[in-house]
């Protein structure tokens, strides 16, 4: 694979932490505008280099960064425009709701849970008393851009109670060009190591990729807050299919046209070992009503063709491991399989990742990553070496202490029709961020995937305001 070098062209700067970057054509307009959603709740659009405010829902967003020293994974996390947005003005939001702060599902800081393979009670934790033991509530809503140019909320599609602060997904709403449905990608509910194994439980909303049929114009006033599919009102159940399970946390789903079909790409953020990107063409969507029926009958739904990324038994290509330093030699560490039985149970059913990259990598041409933050196909010819590739970003390259300020990574991999394991290469950039940290927090594209946009933030903390820059990735 070829060494590729690109430039970063600043589009807008001094904004809050960007969670979604995508384009659409506003009703009555002729060119695409770039839309930027920020974690704190603003949506901006940039047209011909001029920035305007599309919507500001900051009062609707939960107070961010209070309990965790400024860091947070809640907020405005998803924005998607209806495929017919130009004509019907419909768009969709996923965010964490103001005033819903709870104490959390387990005591301790938000990532403190670690299983102990020698203590079965840590391997079989249950999320009990959910009405009181939760962290926050997320909502998925449909909005409409009215003819007077003012956006207005139209209906609520889902109200989900979440156990912890982290792993709510990001860039979590995207429309499928195959089915026309809205795809919601949320994580396993958070902490570390998925304490309640929500991602593999067919009744749990957490850790799944959901397709929502928005055409079934289902209006339900005062929709109840749920964690499980069987708690949803039947008309809402009828709008949902599950595309995949075994998600830990994900920066969204991307679709790449390949002849007359679509390759789906889903990144799964790793625990301590490896970041993974999965791809698949064929899948068998599982209607939620069918999963509920199987659960009532205590029978196993037919899993043939049902996509399973393997988490929590598997972290990508590896059984999920607990890593700890060796007492005799701190420079070395030992890795213990966390959930051996679950790794066995899901070993055949799980999908193998297309791309794996590691938190520690001895190979000189690779890098040590922190967290996968974006996956996008590139179909443009402006950067010929990347045409037809899948491009991905990592939050921050792990470096030796003495080196310059922290900076994210962009890399790419060639498309494989068979979706089997593939190698990747780092993309070099010449942009000088000076003495500022540059966390690569989001990656987006335009409608036909011929342009790529990178969101960079000067801090890992959403509470450190106005440190964001959006770049276009150019030759």
Record keyword descriptors for this entry.
8-stranded mixed sheet, mainly beta, 475 residues
Description:
The longest helix has 9 residues, at 288-296. This protein has 475 residues and is mainly β. The protein has helices at residues 85-88, 120-123, 234-237, 288-296, 340-345, and strands at 4-15, 18-24, 33-38, 42-47, 50-56, 76-81, 90-96, 136-145, 151-162, 173-175, 182-185, 208-212, 240-245, 253-258, 261-268, 274-280, 286-287, 307-308, 314-315, 318-319, 321-325, 333-337, 355-358, 372-378, 389-394, 409-413, 425-429, 439-445, 452-457, 468-474. It starts with a strand and ends with a strand. The chain has 5 helices and 30 strands.
Strand order of the largest sheet: 24-25-26-27-1-30-29-28
Query: Count of helices?
Result: 5
Distance between the termini: 18 Å
Strand content: 35-45%
The major beta sheet can be summarized as: 8 strands, mixed
Quaternary status of these chains? single chain
Mean pLDDT: 95
Overall 3D form: globular
Low-confidence stretches: none
Helix/strand-derived class? mainly beta
| Number of DSSP E strands | 30
